[in-house]
Design brief:
The structure is a homodimer of 162-residue chains.
Chain A lengths: L13 H18 L5 H11 L7 H10 L6 H13 L3 E4 L4 E4 L9 E6 L5 E5 L1 H14 L2 E12 L1 H8 L1
Parallel strand pairs in A: 3-5
Antiparallel strand pairs in A: 1-2, 3-4
The first copy, chain A, binds a DNA duplex (30 and 30 nucleotides) through helix 4.
DNA sequence: CCCATCATGTAATAACATAACAATATTGAA
DNA sequence: TTCAATATTGTTATGTTATTACATGATGGG
């Protein structure tokens, strides 16, 4: 079944950011790559939101913190984080979200609310199996899958009804 | 099961373009909207390829045919065609493909070959059911789904082996 | 210490997309 | 038919997203 995605309920944020960063740090050391200050800060920035931020939004925040002001500063950090699975790019929005299910190795599906702009990440085996079946039937070797649904989230639906 | 998507095999093109345009024309008349010359030409341009073209590629071709040279000319035609289901936007590529399964009302899944840039469209009920289940489990009301897989197509896989 | 590699920074530009407004064509009602 | 409302196409200008190219600085192995 599909686990309840995080993102639609309020929750305490202070610790989850630190935990996620610590976990990323550990993974990077294990992988022999560096979670440098810019990269770590970029990850924190995304973790602090439950929505997707554009590269230029991230860039602006990084710059406030004393990092460079030019696009490659943000794009390089985001590329690194994406490559290592700490961040996902939402193609529909040309924007980036922190991974909500670190450690899991599934194909994530995203639910994008067009009202409140929350982006929820649903890790589901079904998406794996869907893509797997497509691959099998067609003989296509899948490298990366993009699964994104746009619509209205439960919170906004409730508000409309009220 | 997943139908064999078109796009990976060679096939005669001359008629399928005309047929698709004729079908689109008919649908538009039924819907009380106009498939004007620019719009029709934009559709033809996309039908002539089995790959995604950027808006500016389409624009350049339209301009060769005497239409305007500014971005809105292409974007408006593409918006119209997309809205009416004759064309799909491939978010991963910021590009557009002609619909390969006109008349069907499914959630399309796209297979994007990173070698030869073919884009195949697989209409599958599984994608509907996947998205449907996500919607049901989460209480999210889906407006639009984006399913795109990047990888290597059967043709290119065969060439690699050879 | 020196070199290779990786990381960061900047400038410049490319690629993708929309806003705002003018001119023209089409449609339908009076 | 004539008029007004709507839809379509065109242009200018600008906004947004992303990359290339190159210089500088940090890190680690030989």
């Amino acid at each position: 079944m599909i686990p309840n995605p995080i993102g639609f309920e309020k929750h305490d944020h202070s610790h989850c950011v630190q935990d996620a960063v610590a976990a990323a740090d550990k993974k990077c050391r294990n992988a022999g790559v560096q979670l440098t200050p810019v990269r770590k800060r970029a990850l924190e920035i995304l973790l602090e939101e439950h929505r997707a931020l554009g590269a230029y939004d991230v860039l602006a925040r990084l710059n406030e913190d004393g990092y460079g002001s030019q696009p490659p500063v943000a794009y390089r950090a985001l590329d690194f984080l994406t490559k290592h699975g700490f961040v996902h790019k939402i193609e529909r929005l040309n924007a980036f979200v922190a991974c909500a299910h670190p450690g899991e190795r599934h194909t994530p599906a995203f639910l994008i609310c067009t009202e409140c702009h929350v982006v929820a990440e649903a890790e589901t085996e079904h998406s794996d199996s869907l893509m797997g079946q497509i691959a099998e039937t067609t003989g296509f070797r899948i490298t990366r899958a993009v699964l994104e649904a746009e619509g209205i989230c439960p919170n906004c639906l409730a508000k409309e009804t009220a």
